[in-house]
Design goal:
Largest sheet: 4 strands, antiparallel
Oligomer: single chain
Number of strands: 4
Structural class: alpha+beta
Distance between the termini: 47 Å
Number of helices: 3
Strand content: 35-45%
Length: about 100
């Protein structure tokens, strides 16, 4: 099985608790799957259930054991996806006061 990496630029759904605090997020996803389409669907489903809307796919890759060096922070998320099947990291930015 492969581990797919996706980075999505997202905005919070208006009916979510995130909407008042955050303007957006880059959501990094590591998904273990045999199929890229299924991996994207899994990631987008998780994002939607977390009350975020995908605006754009910013980056995608197939990750293997040699992709990261030992000091790279992404390595621990890759390893977590190998164990659990998926791993998500949200990098949010705050809403600017109006």
């Amino acid at each position: 099985m492969k581990v797919f990496f996706f980075q999505f630029r997202c905005s919070p759904l208006t009916n979510s608790y995130n909407y008042l605090e955050y303007e957006g997020a880059f959501i990094n996803c590591w998904i273990k799957s045999d199929n890229e389409y299924a991996a994207v669907e899994t990631a987008q489903g998780y994002i939607f259930n977390s009350k975020w809307k995908v605006e754009e796919l910013e980056e995608k890759d197939i990750i293997d054991d040699e992709f990261y060096n030992q000091k790279d922070e992404g390595l621990k998320y890759y390893k977590q996806a190998l164990l659990d099947g998926e791993c998500y990291v949200f990098h949010t930015w705050e809403r600017k006061p109006s």
